[in-house]
Protein 1
Amino acid sequence: MAVEPKTYTTVATAVRRYYVWAQIVVVFLLLELAIWAPTAEIRNRWAAISAATILVLVVTDLLMDRSGALRPSWASLHRLGLGLPTVAGAGVVLGMGFAALLFMMIFVRSLGGQIPANPTWFPNLRLIWGYVVWSFIQEFILQSFFFSRFEELYGGPAAVWIAATLFAAAHLPNPILTTATLIGALFFCEAFRRYRGVYPLAIVHAMLGLTIALTVPESLLHHMRVGIGYLRY
């Protein structure tokens, strides 16, 4: 008895959705294990496993289309935000990021806050470059992995909220970073949905992260730590 092509399509779609959700759940759990592991050695081990898993899955996305066919293309690179950004898109993202930086500085000063809030700590060039690299890694995970999958499952507008909420949850229990990353990730994900570029977002992410480090007292920020590191600060 022949099976209609429509049935094959329905089954393939359902299998694909389960597969995408499995990727999301596994990677998020691996990241949480890295964040909450009790020792640095175990954290590093889970972080390495998380990084390898994400890299393999994203490379697979680049090499295959969503039907499973081996078909690397510029469209795949663009969809994951890893191609060259447009000048207009980069300009909008960087401009809004700089405006947010100025707003944060003016807001803190208007409340009588001190800048830098932690005079005994000021990032040197090595730390700044390290944070820029870390910002790119975070945006790569947020956009090229999580957002692109939620977008496939639920569409772009819903993916903005879901991915941003998940990103903020990864910064628990730090109240400052959880709040800031929810607001920031809503902007990052919406900008990614519109302009599809990870690199400008990484620059803005680094700018705003360093601004938070300079304007929020260590007694509240706990040196920007999350997970078990925040509780043990």
Protein 2
Amino acid sequence: MAAKSKRFKEIIKLTEGKSTFNLGGAIETILKCPEVKFDESIDVSLHLGVDPKKSDQQVRGTVSLPHGTGKKMTVVVLAKGDKITEAKEAGADYAGADELVEKIKGGWTDFNAIIATPDMMREVGKLGKILGPRRLMPTPKAGTVTTDVSSAVKDVKAGKIEFKVDKNGVVNNSIGKRSFAKEKLVDNVQTYLNAIMKAKPSTSKGVYFKNLVLSSTMGPGMKIDVHSVAIS
């Protein structure tokens, strides 16, 4: 059996004997864990009481985190004419039409978000096999298919994220960085969970928030007592 590292032993000391945490306590513990050489993401994994196989129990939406994600967002806008200029002035990293579509067809995916105007969706549809598995496909529900590309770009750059339940009934997202202050991480988690609560399908019965885990990229998963989280 491989020997446990010093870092691993320190993490065990911090979490030993604790099966669940309140939200603030979990974040405090994560921030006390030994640091690694990069700014870890803080991730939330939420198991919902829905049946994703049913079309009326899908959970999907967007939320603007009050303190952003801490992640540098590289944004691509697929548009034509004046919308290209509008996108670039709003802060888009790349904006264009056919040349960018061809570049993506060739395997380029060095970006975090893609926004498209409605008149580009026929071409965007051809990119489904590339964008779909990476959860990059623009959609009207996520606000990434729009004529208001300026607002869409600014929202994404400011920390707007999309959440979507997977086939196992779980929603996973990064909601900040370890370098954030505890209070900012709490605010982001609360805002995120409130958005998911508002997206609860009317056909979902019983317990909606079944299991909630908070973790850092290289840290342990902290099970959160869902009753300790103020959901509105």
Protein 3
Amino acid sequence: MNEIHLELCASDGWAEIVERDIVPWVLEGIDPGADVLEVGPGPGRTTDVLQRSFPHVTAVELDDELARQLQARFAATNVRVVEGDGARLPFRDARFTAAFSFTMLHHVPSVDLQDRLLAEVARVLCPGAVLAGVDSRDSDDFRALHEGDVCVPVDPRTFGTRLQRAGFARVDVDTNDFATRFRAWTRTT
């Protein structure tokens, strides 16, 4: 993540948007259960909201420096921070009741790696569990924010099919002017 983007994602203004708009939109109408996984928390503004919402939160962060900062910040809380790769999750099958991805998939450097990450998330979810998330829509402004950074936007027209190929049985993908929301449930048997 470039410095400007990292600064924005760590800001109080972003935290307000996350709490007021993004997390409620993603959680609307779903039952995540009590033991949830967050993939790619970045500076942790979404993790702050999840911490207050769920008894057990595990956050997996690839960036070693961000992971260390999150580990220190969430020490002795209901959040466990693991430094790791979402495409190679260090958890047993059917471990979590839900998983979340908030505006991070576009930071995964290829569609193939995004798909591997989605398949790994499906693997670690309990039967009938949900992956819920949001990612920004592609635009000139969005690309400008990612100058010098990884930026592989999710295409909402094909994302449902990609989720199904990754192992999800029921998929819901919808968009607004700025973002694509997705919810995908694992098979129940």
